[in-house]
Amino acid sequence: MPKPQIIKDVFNDDNASGVALKNKVLKKLIFKYLDQTDASSITDLSKELLISVPKTTSLVNELIVEGMIKDYGKIDSTGGRKASMYGLVSDACFFIGVDVKKYYINIGLLNFKKQLVTQKNRIPYKLENTQESLTQLIQIIQGFIKEQSIKKDKILSIAINLSGRIKNTIGYSFSFFHFQEEPLSIIIQNEIGIKTFLENDSRAMAFGECNFGEVSSEKNALFVNIDYGIGLGILINNEIYYGKSGFSGEFGHIRFFDNEIICHCGKKGCLETEASGSALVRKFKDKIEQGSTSILIKKNKLLENITLTDLIQAAKDEDVLCIELLAEVGEKIGMGLAAMINVFNPELIILGGTLSETGDFLRLPIRSAINKYSLSLVNSDTELRLSKLGEKAGILGACLIARNKILSVL
Q: 3-state class of 47 per DSSP?
């Protein structure tokens, strides 16, 4: 069993120089290759790293002693002799992914071999730009860590997904918890005692879907996160596109409508004002006040307490009003996506986020609007699919981001 400090030292380059630093970089390259191949022989590792077999053997033996990789056994080789295969030790270390929603939190624990060990969904929480909300977020993460059967020192890093504008390179949020000049990631890291990273929720979900979900051979794809707001994760040549300042994907804040509805960004006419989960809840309440009926009201659900989750379930229960409103919202989302198709010409669009749980109630009007508003020569090669991962997309994306940040070669 590896000692936690040894694990951290393998990835910490702060006090390394010369040969020691070079060996650490080579070890990280070994991890990267084993990530891609699952298991490898010394000979193949030597060829991949362009170093001698004796040097590769020495590094592998060090990592075995450190508890990071192990001998998986021997297999037949083309030369007739059986070669030992080496791979990662799954419980050598762990990573936490935290996906923060408007009214709840999803959180998961990933092992060294990228397997989700445990997850906890829909922990009650209210995301607000207050110190109390930040304190509760930290307490939820601390509580999750205490519930695990592993030592805290074996958790190498945490990644937290938040909506809005995130400067992921420095861990700063411009939308939530920006009470101090110090980056939010550092504030949380100091409270929890584990290296912490920050990411935009839509990009993290796109990253999770790219690695575990609907993206397979496609190199250029768009992931649409349809929740209370609307976000976009952009995949170009198999990599998440961040943009110059790291703020790409603000799809919901493109001005599409000539209305007087003020978006939470402070501007009017944003796509979110007419085609988001927040818009759906507002439209539902307006319809009820105008005399429309719904099974939610018949169940004595107070109008002011209606949530997006309630509307999604009502649509699944074939509530006519909710289905009609979803079609209206879907039409407007499709209009926006038609513009994205004309610009990016993607191979694939994935619909994710809470509203995607409504399935064809949302997908079909979106598809219809895409056909109506985008150029047929451009959209004909674009597939439209629902997220395969659902709630797990954000958790897995965050876990992988936490893992990749630690394992990245400088």
A: helix
Distance of CA 293 to the CA centre of its chain: 37
Q: How far apart are CA 179 and CA 197, in angstroms?
A: 18
Sequential DSSP letters for 181-213: SS-HHHHHHHHH-SEEEEEEHHHHHHHHHHHHS
Q: What is the pLDDT of residues 352-376, one digit of tens each?
A: 999 999 999 999 999 999 999 999 8
With a CB cutoff of 8 Å and minimum separation 6, the contacts of 176 are 127, 129, 133, 134, 162, 163, 164, 184
| HSE-up of residue 325 (Cα within 13 Å, Cβ side) | 28
d(CA 7, CA 78): 35
Distance CA 74, CA 71 (A): 8
> Tell me: the pLDDT tens digits for 118-129?
999 999 999 999
Residue 356's contacts (CB-CB under 8 Å, 6 or more residues apart) are 226, 362, 363, 386, 387, 390
What are 138's two structure tokens?
């930290």
What's the confidence (pLDDT) of residue 77? 54
Does pLDDT of 80 surpass 80?
no
Q: Please write the tens of the pLDDT for every residue from 47-73.
A: 988 999 999 999 999 999 888 899 998
d(CA 186, CA 177): 12
Task: Look up residue 268 and give its DSSP letter.
Answer: B
Cβ-based neighbours of 193, under 8 Å, separated by 6 or more:
152
Query: Where does 195-317 have alpha helices with state H?
Result: 201-212, 272-275, 277-289, 295-298, 308-316
Residues 6 or more apart whose CB falls under 8 angstroms from that of 227 comprise: 101, 102, 163, 276, 277, 308, 353, 354, 355
Contact between residue 263 and residue 273 where contact means Cβ atoms under 8 Å apart: yes
As a whole number, mean pLDDT of residues 228-240 equals 91
The domains of the chain, with CATH numbers, are 4-88 (1.10.10.10), 94-206+394-407 (3.30.420.40), 216-387 (3.30.420.40)
The stretches of 351-391 forming alpha helices (DSSP H) are 360-373, 376-379
Q: Which of 326, 409, 330, 317 is nearest to 373 (CA)?
A: 330
Write down the pTM of the prediction: 0.88
pLDDT at 410: 37
If you average pLDDT over residues 153-167, what whole number do you get? Answer: 94
